[in-house]
From TrEMBL:
Stored SUPFAM superfamilies: NAD(P)-binding Rossmann-fold domains (SSF51735)
Record Pfam families: adh_short_C2 (PF13561)
PANTHER family (alphabetical): NADPH-DEPENDENT ALDEHYDE REDUCTASE-LIKE PROTEIN, CHLOROPLASTIC-RELATED, RE15974P
Keyword Oxidoreductase: yes
Gene3D superfamilies assigned to the protein according to its UniProt record, in alphabetical order: NAD(P)-binding Rossmann-like Domain
GO MF annotations, alphabetized: oxidoreductase activity, acting on the CH-OH group of donors, NAD or NADP as acceptor
Keyword Oxidoreductase: yes
UniProt keyword list: Oxidoreductase
Family: Belongs to the short-chain dehydrogenases/reductases (SDR) family.
Protein's UniProt name: DH200=94 genomic scaffold, scaffold_5924
Length: 262
């Protein structure tokens, strides 16, 4: 079945489960949302500023049906808006949320050294990437369905392992998430909810290209054993697996998906 098309089969791995994918109007989050929809899930497409792109993703999922995907504007760094995200999902689909994928994230396209990182940029990055992930995890831990099928998946980055100069605030914010999620997985003992991080290498999205010269991009391509950039579709199937019942035994892990460059 083509990604993102509406369907009525009862045997799909995520049939009718409710998934919130933050930052799914574009980039990696969009590919994840379309993939989870192709596995049968009902989707909340979240964004913070651009409704047009979010609406396109929802229409692609809905096809001729109207009740498979909704869009919700919410800034994940704001606790009230994160609550609204969950409220909207529960009321639109008349169901608890089963799956939370936190893909919303930002970087500093100036790639500054620590010495040159402004306090504002540091705070912005930590607000969205670390505080945002914390708020999504907190709400998920309290509200995701117990007793099987509950999933929390946070997007971090392979750079936590590669540790390149120019990424300190960004990588620091993602390292914080990786530690938090490993602890969360243990705290969720007895709920049947798993918590994991998916840590991509460089993926061809706006976030990746912003502020990079052609030469910088070429260097990244040359470093990869596959000699290419990752595509959003290289990440989505792993998230689909973790979200499925077959992924239950993968819990409290950081899974890198990067073509082998680290
Ligand atoms: N691309 C890479 O090379 C790469 C590598 C490793 C890890 N990652 C991680 O993967 C995730 C997705 O990255 P991407 O490359 O897909 O980024 P992207 O193409 O820039 O998309 C970012 C998405 O996040 C949303 N967003 C931004 N700030 C938000 C906020 N405060 N609240 C809610 N939504 C917000 C954006 O919506 P609006 O347009 O409405 O703001 C957009 O949908 C990020 O966590 C990133 O750190 C990316």
């Amino acid at each position: 079945m083509a990604e993102g098309t509406a369907h009525s089969t009862q045997s799909l791995p995520l049939q009718d489960r409710v998934a919130i994918v933050t930052g799914s109007s574009r980039g990696i989050g969009k590919a994840i949302a379309l993939h989870l929809a192709s596995l049968g899930a009902r989707l909340v497409i979240n964004y913070s500023s651009n409704p047009t792109q979010a609406n396109i993703v929802a229409s692609q999922i809905n096809g001729n049906s109207t009740n498979r995907a909704i869009t919700v504007k919410a800034d994940i760094s704001d606790p009230t808006q994160v609550k609204t995200l969950f409220d909207s999902a529960e009321s639109a689909f008349n169901s608890p949320v089963h799956i939370l994928v936190n893909s919303a994230g930002i970087t500093d396209p100036k790639y500054p050294t620590v010495a040159n990182t402004t306090i504002e940029d540091f705070d912005n990055i930590f607000n969205v990437n670390a505080r945002g992930a914390f708020l999504c995890c907190k709400e998920s831990a309290n509200r995701i369905k117990r007793g099987g099928g509950g999933r929390i998946i946070c997007l971090t980055t392979t750079l936590v392992a590669a540790l390149y100069p120019g990424y300190a605030a960004y990588v620091g914010s993602k390292a914080a998430v990786e530690s938090m999620v490993k602890i969360l997985a243990k705290e969720l003992k007895g709920t049947g909810i798993t918590a994991n991080c998916v840590a991509p290498g460089p993926i061809a999205t706006e976030l990746f290209f912003e502020g990079k010269t052609e030469e910088m991009v070429k260097r990244v391509v040359d470093m990869n054993p596959f000699g290419r950039l990752g595509q959003t579709e290289d990440v989505a199937p792993l998230v689909g697996f973790l979200a499925s019942d077959a992924g239950e035994w993968v819990n409290g892990q950081i899974i890198r998906v990067n073509g082998g460059f680290v």
